[in-house]
Each structure stands twice: as structure tokens, then as C-alpha cells.
Amino acid sequence: GLGVPVTVSERVNNVVGFAQIKVLQAKNLRWNDEEKNKDKVPHPFVSTVVSSPHLGELKGITRTVRGESSPIFREYFEFVVRDINADKIEVRVEHQDTLFADRLGTVKVPITRVYRGEVLQEWFRLRDGSAKGKILLEIRLAMVEWKDQDPNPTLKYKELARKPRDPGSASGSRYDDEDEWALIHEESEDFAAASPTKDKSQ
Q1: CA pair distance 146, 100, nearest whole angstrom
Q2: If exposure means fewest CB atoms within 10 Å of the residue's CB, which of 28, 55, 142, 150 is most exposed?
Q3: pLDDT in tens, 20-52
């Protein structure tokens, strides 16, 4: 869904908005080969990446939660988005080993899904890594807007959001109350108290 628009006094070229990502928590992180790793305790952290053909990879990293298979992070990241159709969000859950990081699993979310309102707060299953598990993310796209902009991105979004969703979509729930989102640039008491949604992927 959309976040609060970023209003500027004049046209801005090559920036359409900002991806706002809350990494809330992961759960049930288990090694694929549990027998081989039965004595190995996960020390998870999360790398949040927006990849762009224009800017390459923009990355933010959470703290490491040592010895926890269901870690709580509650950390916020914000990235510039240049191209809604080409830019992608990738969230990597990793294990901090002594010398190297071992990728436990990955979630990939196209910016187009966020823009159409198909992603707000959702449990995602980890894929393409050495472990199983899920991660709870909350994602918004704050559009850059200026006076007399045509087309207005917020109005365009509302038109997209009214269209029926593809019944084959694997997306989680849609949310209508767009006004409840608040821009968070540092951890606050309200953010720390954010409650996870019900896991719909079970």
C-alpha cells in the first residue's frame, strides 16, 4: 500500500518514491539438514535490499539476535525507488557465523505488488537458503508528489487498488485503513509495540 506522500516544491526527476520497510520478526528458523546442524544455534540478522538497474543495491542490516530461532527485530528501513516496474525488494535472513554469514532464506517482493496495495503486513515463507522459517514484514511505498503533478500517483494508486485482484495471487490480506501508517525514522515506543498480524500462511 501507499505511505504518506513526500511533498516537494517542484518536480523531481528519477525518483518516484521511497520504499518503507519494517522488519518485525522471524519465526521457526530451522536448518534444512537438522541432523547435520543439530548442535548449531542460529544467530539471525536480516539484510534488507532494494535492487535497482539505476542504483545497484541499496542495503540496510538489522542487529544480530544471538541464539534465537524466533527473533524479534522491529527495525525500520527506507530506500529510494527510481522505477516501480524494475526495482525489487529482497529480504535476506542470515546466520552470523564466526567468520562468514550463512544465508538462511530469502524473500523477494516486486515494488509493483506494493504499489498495487497487495502487500502491507504479511508473513513470508523463506526460500533459497539453508533453513526453513517465516518472516513478518510491513511494507509501504511513499510517493514523491508536487503541485500540479499529472498523473497524481496517489490517485493512480487508488484506481489500481479498486481493481479486482488476480484470484491466483498468493498475496496476503489487503488493508483499507491507509491513514494508520506513520513514517518512522527511528525506533519509537509505538513502533516497538507493533503487534504481529495473524499468520495466514499456515
Answers
A1: 45
A2: 150
A3: 999 999 999 988 887 777 778 889 999 999 988
Q: For every residue of the chain, which 3-state class applies, written as one string?
A: CECCCEECCCCCCCCCEEEEEEEEEEEEEEECCCCCCCCCCCCEEEEEEEEECCCEEEEEECCCCCCCCCCEEEEEEEEEECCCCCCEEEEEEEEECCCCEEEEEEEEEEHHHHHCCCCCEEEEECECCCEEEEEEEEEEEEEEECCCCCCCHHHHHHHHHHCCCCCCCCCCCCCCCHHHCCCCCCCCHHHHCCCCCCCCCC
Distance CA 118, CA 28 (A): 25
Q: Nine-digit cell at 61?
A: 542490516
Q: CB-based contacts of 161: which residues, under 8 Å, 6+ apart? A: 1, 116, 117, 174
Closest by CA to 72, choosing from 107, 24, 104, is 24
Four-residue CA torsion sign, 158, 160, 163, 164: negative
Residue type, 24: L
